């Protein structure tokens, strides 16, 4: 192979994601995007292919991509499962409340976690209300105490949702429970209606 041919080959390799994206644009004139698949030997250049597809506004989903369990939607659902098994996990509960599943604002979460109503003398046994779940239960049943600007009914609604899901943990298969959660929160419909969120939906499925 001549030096010029070698250089051309190297350049072709460097531009491979771009060339693939352009070829897909051509193919999409006669077939559906969903009928096209890109098979990679390794995931080393996965991000380059993703970037190329995005530059050309080509919709895609990744199967077996990098960092699956670090994707936010998966992280949120894992946190939710932890809470359903043991609601005393404060960090996981805060993550669930702040996630798109329940969409609590920072102000709502700050109010929920405030300590003033639940302080006890140091020598007394720690009260259940000292957990975030305990505080959540208290506020959900005393929404008249919550400032109007914090949307008091939302506290009750979110608590009732979590409680109803917890009641189903040992009664139905986990996959059925997750589908119910997605339907109850409307999250499935939101993701399905947005092309940008298609990958999130596929990750959940």
Outline of the structure:
With 205 residues, the protein is an all-alpha fold. It contains eleven helices and no strands.
Keywords:
205 residues, mainly alpha, 11 helices, elongated
Q: Would you write up a description of this structure?
A:
This protein has 205 residues and is an all-alpha fold. It has 11 helices and no strands. The protein has helices at 3-14, 16-27, 46-55, 72-85, 90-98, 106-112, 132-140, 152-168, 174-185, 187-192, 198-204. Helix 7 (132-140) packs across helix 8 (152-168). The model is unreliable at 1-12, 117-127 and 192-201 (pLDDT under 50).
Indicate the percent of residues in helices: 55-70%
What is the makeup of the main sheet?
none
- What is the SS-derived class? mainly alpha
Radius of gyration: 24 Å
SS strand fraction: under 5%
The succession of helices and strands, N to C, reads HHHHHHHHHHH
| Strand tally | 0
The overall average pLDDT, rounded, is 77
Low-confidence runs of at least 5 consecutive residues: 1-12, 117-127, 192-201
Gross morphology is elongated
Head-to-tail CA distance between termini: 48 Å
Supply the number of helical segments.
11
Write the layout of secondary structure elements.
Layout lengths: L2 H12 L1 H12 L18 H10 L16 H14 L4 H9 L7 H7 L19 H9 L11 H17 L5 H12 L1 H6 L5 H7 L1
Helix pairs in contact: 2-3, 4-5, 7-8
